[in-house]
Design a protein that fits this description.
The strands form 4 sheets. Strands 2-1-5-4-3 form a 5-stranded antiparallel sheet. Strands 7-6-10-9-8 form a 5-stranded antiparallel sheet. The protein is an alpha+beta fold. It has 17 helices and 17 strands. The two termini are about 40 Å apart. The relative contact order is 0.07.
Amino acid sequence: MRFQTKIIVTYTVFILLVGVVIALVYYGYSVDQYRSTEERNLEVAAQQVTNQIDELIKPMDTRTRYILSDAEILESIRLLAAARQSVIEIDEAYLYSAQKTIETGLNIDYVMNDFYRVVLFNPGGDVVSSRTPPPLATRKVAAFGDMPWLVAADEAKGQPVLVGAHEDTWGVQSRPQVFSLLKALQGSGLGYIEVQRTIESVAEAITLPRESFEVMVFLGDGELLYGNNDETDPAAAWADLSERASEPVFQTGAGGGAMLMAVNRSSAYGVVVAVAESMADVQQGSNSVAPITVGIALIFCVISLVFVLIASSFLTKPLRQLREVMEQTQLDNLAREIPVSMPNDELEALNLSYRNVLERLRESIVKEKQASLLQLRAQFDLLQAQVNPHFLYNVLNVIAQRGMAGGDEEICNICSSLAAMLRYSTNTKRRYATIAQELEYLEQYFYLLKSRYEHKIAFSIEVDPAIHGQVIPKIALQQVVENCINHGFANATDCMRVEIAGWKNNARWVIRIRDNGQGFAEEKMAEIDQKLAETQARIAQERSSVELEIGGMGLVNTYARLYLLFGEDLGFSIRNHEAGAEVTISAIWCENGEHDCAREEEA
């Protein structure tokens, strides 16, 4: 699967998950908000209905106050009460006049229009009503047994008492459902004033914001004043209201009968109003949020996917360009500049890494070409130099046999050492040897030098056996020692001494060759440093070679072969010390002893 496709698929799955989460969160939040809105609507509706009921009851209370504030009516009421209690004897004409005075006060226009009936009656049997003509005629005799609420009026001591929905007890021909405001007149036998309104007037006065709302109006003792749903049990509703009196809005019921109910209490008359809405209606309303939620989620997903497509195309464009460059890369264009614009650090790092790989590949190819060229030239020079090694071996054997015949073992040993050196140096199968093999070669070389200079030369070899397995170019150490003998002791008369030391230093191995000769002159040291730098630069350059001449400057020859093997890991220093010259060679420690170049040669 392509990288861009993977990005699109990954982010598509991520966006879908995020979209689902956002949709669920938004849906839950919207449902909660919708329910909160419904609760506020119910609270407002309950407060509104409470105000409407208060406005319905308030004129009834006002009317009773007005009647009792009229001195003429109040005096007529007292006159009737005194006459019925036989406190004084009053002519019937005066009694009739008193009844007419009260009746006139009750039957004014706004009373006739606003209230169903206003009745003043006393225990003596007097009944005065605002409704006299048929079919609204009023009974002339009070049926006290049909009015149990009179006890509550007496206990209220002149305060108004609300009487819930009941049948009109005063009607003769028509007895509709009414509710009343009743007040007991304070005074012996003065009686009661009752102001009635029909239940229909309550229904007309109540205005609900929604037809689906149910409303119940209770008096302070739980008696139902009005309800717009006959299927609702008022007793159960009042029980829920009483249990959860501290909650303005709550859910009641279960299953299909669950309701969301808001309650409001009138501070003026103690009326309790409950406005409820079916939870099924609430749920149905909240379900309308679902299409909006799905729409928002789809819009989010579409916009996000478009963004992912554009972003993935933009981000992977450099990768596509880099892939094209990599496919077009060949050996003859490794040094070509890569024209790829990288928009961020990671891709720039990838581009840089690829350039570094190309650079290392190019350098490796150059080094391999140079090494192959040097190998060919070295073999050619060795072949020319050795002329015919087998002939030399035969000559040395003849000399050794003549020495043995003459009893001179020294000649035999010299010939044996020289033959061993010739075999080692003229073996062209391997360009590299271990330090142990180089030390054996040096011992043969030292033996020949000792035979020549005798007591005038001394050698010491102290090399840690731990580094014997490390690989170096063949005859590298012998060339450095030969440089010491040929140049370090050119004008010396004292004993010539050469010390070879080797050890392991952390992750590197070190070999130091030191003499007690005259050291390097400053001009010679500068010349050598310059040639070493030039050699290193020429080896590093593409399609360049180094002219390594057998018999030329040994130090430059040795440095070139070491640098070809170890590269930048090589440590090579030449300096003077207090008693002569010193050459130090070091390189990275290899666990198996063989460097990469040596392994390639073996392969």
